[in-house]
Amino acid sequence: MLDQLDQRLRQLIKEKHWNKLTNIQEMSFKPITNGHNTLIIAPTGYGKTEAALFPILNKMLHEDVKPVTVIYITPLKALINDLLHRINWWSSRLGFLVNRKHGEVPQKEKNLRLKKIPHIIVTTPEGLEIDLDWASRFREYYKNVKWVIVDEVHELVSSKRGTQLSILLERLKSFIGYDFQRIGLSATVSDEEKVAKFLFGSSERKMSIIKLQDTRNFEIKIRKIKNDSIMWKNAAELIHQLIEKPTLIFTNSRFSTERLYEELEKLGNTEIYVHHSSISKDLKNLAEDELRNGNAKAVVCTKTLELGIHVGDIKKVIMLRPPTSVSSFLQRLGRSGHIVHGIPKGEIVCFYDFDVMEAFALYISAIKGKIEKPIIDDGLDVVARELLGMILQYQKINIDDAYNIIHNSYIYRNLKLSEFMELIEYLAKNNIIKIDNGYLKLGYNFFKIWRFNKDSKSGWGKEFSEFFSLINNDETFTLKYNGVTVGEIDAVYVYKHVRANDIIRISGKLWKVMRINLNKSTIDVTPVNEGEGEIPIWKGESTSKSSIIVNSIKNIIKNFNKYYPVMKNILDKDAMDSLLKILSEYKEQSLNIPIDNIIIVEKREDDEWIYSTLIDEKIANTLSHILLYLVIKKYTLNAFARSSIYGFSIKGTPIDLLKEVVNMDDNKIRKIILKSILRSPLYIATLKEIQPSFGKISKINLKEDRFLIKEALRQTLKRYFSIKKTLEFINKIRRQEIRIIYVDNPTPLSEAVLSHAQIRPWLLDLNVSIYQALKGGAYTVNELSEVLGISPKSLENKLKQLRRANNKYKVTSFVDVDSRENRWCLYEDFISIVKSEEYYSSFAPLNQNEIFIASLKSGDNQVEVIFKPKDLLNSPDEILRKIPFNNIEEVKVREAIDTSYQFSQKYYHVGKDIIIYLLLNAVAYLQSLKYS
DNA sequence: GACCTGCTGCGGGGTG
User: Fold this and answer.
1) Distance B11 C1' – A563 CA (angstroms)
2) Which residues, if any, are the signal sequence (predicted)?
3) Which residues of A515-541 are buried (b: 16+ CB within 10 A; e: fewer)?
4) A692 FRET partner, CA 20 to 30 A, in A58, A116, A566, A721?
């Protein structure tokens, strides 16, 4: 191939001291030169960027090209920065200008591109979105584009960002009126054809897929630690021995990252860093730099370091607990042995017996080359957003033209015009667009939702910059030390758990909370050296395990003897014992392992029914939601379910509800599934995510917003549930192809089910939501308002109503003497809150002997009780005797000498059962005012 | 205990 390259390019290759080109560079040259749309598949580190670049630069040297000639798209800002230098090295020497564009490029640098138009622009999907929608001058230069390169296609293909990009490419094609050449760069994927079609869309060019047979081997060891009360310490001790400088230690959560670091630190480890998405950028950069410089012994990280950023040569990868998919397993493993002939070296450290099964299943699947197929997101919210983008671009757009552009995208090739019209009508109803003689224009709600003005924080709406991105963010608090950001915590966690003087562990350090600024959503902290810090819990989306893992586990159990020799090589003794233990426990109970045709049912003492069987997680999720729906309808609100690949469970029913489900007809089950999804937090989250795209900001109305509800339901179903597979599963039970066996003793898989999180329903009934939010704690109106997403004012009114209630939803309030704020709690929880340490000072008078007067009212009855604080503690019955009614509508407390009522405290709608504590609260509060 | 990613353009006015 070298001989076909222009002399100037050949000279540069010589200058780089490249003796030869990599295989993938050789193989890609011809198809790209011939103008084919080309998908290049090879692992990281094989020079894919140059494989795409060489033939293009070669052509650019000979053709009359005008800037902008090439758009290079990649999903990460860090990659853009890397690529800029890499591409610029070649192109600047050939006389072509390169420019980058992402949110953190300084304004000065951004402005340059209009003065000197670049030949090659490197940006994100969002960057292209901005340019097409909004950059009215620069986008004119896009009319010269001949090539579009999309990097990390595997990363984009199954996300909304990829869907967005697929429409953007069709918009670009329509805008410039030229079928530009598309080149994709990807890591190993399972469904290459589909990925190629996704990328190439409506282009009529021939297509080529260039794939490097990945013959790289890898070394893997699966280990198990003892999961007793000090399992984190055990894990750290083992990992400490396994580390070979430099090592990447992957965990599956931000919490685990911090927790493991804590224990590694206790073992005296230095030169170890923490890396995850909630750590400040500077600290992340430090960790990356130290890796590259060879100073870091190890970095404990989440998926942040799984993606393509170069972090130097990694000697070894340790995974704390198995990752949830084969592709993630391979990506993590691939971070080590980065030199082309290096062999990746990995360790999986397991906590539980079933971790060992999963780890081995991952290994077997990886060896066999079984990788998860991409699931393309076909959300209509993306269509809506792109439609709005097109209107921004053209001011107005013909409905048919808009439809054709969307329809050209591979993802929406089956979208019917009627469905498109339904979408348009819904957008028009929300006044985010208006329809004018077959043309679409922006409606007056557009700039209400996507605000330009950052300061007008009041009310609803999002910042205009967010319009260009389909990534959602939950509310967070930023931790600041001396004004410098050190990390981030979920807002809900802050409201529920963080208070002044608490010690928090984040970014591998301990911080004391000095001040919580609710308005700015920041927390001022200061570093401390000792004490036990609490690690915050971040609530992410649930990560489900791929069905490849489930099937692989089934296969391994069925053919245990066949796999045994491999196992002996890869598992350490403890891991091996774990696997054998699972098998022998079933044997001891004379049970078959529930892999294909058995469900083992156990009822635990607390009314939790566990159905264990290896199962597709979507089926488990669907079944558990059906059961949850039935329990709530029939028995109790205090119910929850669990679902996992090891089975599912339901708590709160005295009878086996699965039996009832099996006896229902399919239509009824279908209806229940839909109803149960409408109550699931997963649906609520989807709804929240997509509704701004449709211009919906006010309260959702079941009739008016049918389109939105239907779409949210469809997306939730597609992502997390499966009606078809669930009905098939139930049918197998009916036909007794799946047998149900009841047992009394715990079995290994049921223990695995129990280790999964509880799914609680989200009820639209406000009383219930408040009940759920308050349960077990005491909160201010503002805190609750954030948790529930209801305005503080209406929430306060609701709480005042509930104060009068005479049922389990009844609430009450008291003053938090430390913060002087009113706190609300469930009436049923009040006494346990009084007795908790947290609010001790709110019920502890400072002076026992001062005299107070309480005036109590009930209807027309009224009494005054004179008391000393010590009476409340020593002889409460005497005080109670003086109160002639059980329900006290109003209590007013003041100090006897304060005849002006200058300081008094009131309570409403309380029973005699808690009045003593409220009097204590009033006294503690009034005295705290007086003595401070 | 449950991952990650990104996020105005253009031109006019002022200052040195």
Assistant:
1) 70
2) none
3) ebeeeeebbbbeeeeeeebebbebeee
4) A721
